[in-house]
Amino acid sequence: MAxxxxxxxxxxxxCPSSLQVTSFPVxxxxxxxxxxxxxxxxFENSMNQVKLLKKDPGNEVKLKLYALYKxxxxxxxxxxxxxxxxxxxxxxxxxxxxxxxLPKMYHEIMRALKAASKDDSIITVLTGNGDYYSSxxxxxxxxxxxxxxxxxxxxxxxxxxxxxxxxxxxxxKPLIAVVNGPAVGISVTLLGLFDAVYASDRxxxxxxxxxxxxxxxxxxxxxxxxxxxxxxxxxxxxxxKKLTAGEACAQGLVTEVFPDSxxxxxxxxxxxxxxxxxxxxxxxxxxxxxKRERExxxxxxxxxxxxxxxxxxxxxxxxxxxxxxxxxxxx
Length: 331
Ligand SMILES: CCCCCCCCCCCCC/C=C/C(=O)SCCNC(=O)CCNC(=O)[C@H](O)C(C)(C)COP(=O)(O)OP(=O)(O)OC[C@H]1O[C@@H](n2cnc3c(N)ncnc32)[C@H](O)[C@@H]1OP(=O)(O)O
Known about the structure:
By secondary structure, the protein is α/β, with parallel strands linked by helices.
């Protein structure tokens, strides 16, 4: 397979198409048993690492590892609660259940990127499925608060988001976005970490973070000012200006815009040609470019996630999400 292809699906609740309500894009490819076996293997490797530690890290760390593995491979806790006298399984159940519904879709995208980074694909393409590229984070994520409480959920989601964005920072092969329609939130901010962004002329780019009481993520607080100037980045990230594909291209966020009528044909012809290029040269050239920024990008990502963790707990964010979900105000 010369090209790994992942499709983001719009998080919508009443869409006429086959789309499900998803917290984030649905991976259409790569979610095969291999990927699951990889995470099983990864988990066993990390457990073996834990066993090699000179000092036992303690039950809390081991329970956390167990919970994150179950969450990544099975999603939210789906087991019946063990009885009070079944102490070990009860502790494991509590640890897993405390993660609440960390959005599984983020895990699926991470697993797919990790698999694509190791398989024989030469370039990786992310695109939307249907009329939209992505509606960003599913805002219903804010509604189900697990037993560990809202602070615990915010902390866990900040860890998840940092790991998720980190996958894009560290992805070793050419990563290309094919933006087939409206793109919102994190699906836009991550574009600053892609190697090329091709857009249909019907695509729009919207980062309504202030409207949502939130703050920029995906390293956009660093990449957007670099790409488009601080003032243009402010208009998008702080004031929530929605860009057309043409405007996004003029500002450097989009590499090239195509008429929607010929978009798919033109772009995939080009991508297939890219996929015939010598893979090592592609990978090594990307590394030469990315390595200068990698450390900075990880530092920016860590700071953005830390700030967002606080934002998610703010009244501004809570009110904005409630308003959105009760449809009191369109963004
Ligand atoms: C408290 C603890 C913390 C928890 C935190 C959890 C976070 C998880 C970790 C990762 C976080 C990463 C940070 C990411 C941030 C973002 O991405 S912010 C941006 C979020 N997205 C939006 O704000 C998109 C808002 N939606 C739109 O702009 C439009 O809907 C659209 C996508 C452009 C489509 O417009 P249109 O065609 O007009 O359709 P609509 O009628 O507006 O929508 C159709 C239905 O779909 C529902 N919907 C749309 N987007 C979302 C969404 N993002 N989340 C949930 N639901 C969405 C919309 O409500 C409609 O539903 P119905 O009213 O039921 O039909």
